[in-house]
Amino acid sequence: GNSVTQMEGPVTLSEEAFLTINCTYTATGYPSLFWYVQYPGEGLQLLLKATKADDKGSNKGFEATYRKETTSFHLEKGSVQVSDSAVYFCALSDHDEGASKIIFGSGTRLSIRP
Amino acid sequence: DTAVSQTPKYLVTQMGNDKSIKCEQNLGHDTMYWYKQDSKKFLKIMFSYNNKELIINETVPNRFSPKSPDKAHLNLHINSLELGDSAVYFCASSRVWASGVTDTQYFGPGTRLTVL
User: With pLDDT > 70 as the criterion, what percentage of chain A qualifies?
Assistant: First the structure.
């Protein structure tokens, strides 16, 4: 079946450090890929998405490129801020899945030190 | 304007009680969901409704019963609450394309349920 695997947290970085959160997926069809972010005490919100191979999603300085050859969608940011501290979820939606749902990874907690 | 709203935000109750959580979306989406998030932030889908019809019913105790009076509302009723039901419950909605691919899901703020 379809699945998403993302790096275990927590990840702790200093402000202005470079961030990478790895995400790989398994899918039988042609999935859309998403990164969601959950700030403390809030629901999940979309950070960025890509709907086909080689697409790059970007938002708030974060980027992720849909790599079909490596089945990956790694999240990157060049210079993190304290306000980026949150839990990040990689997810996929696949039209071969049958039922309409998005499959989420287990989440990666990110903490940024001032 | 709130896109997906849930009430209540906090719910503290005794074991054995029955409680309901309400969810409403004003995005015009056809599909709504309930998720359970545990203390380690793992997100588990419970139910999905499309146009008031149950589409997904994951392995959830039958003490949990969703009800969709119209496509803008999806409520969750829980009977005989147990300690293990303590979690944060999120409602979400999305559009589903004709191809079957789910577009971006929009989440409510969550309901933190504590069973004592």
Answer: 94
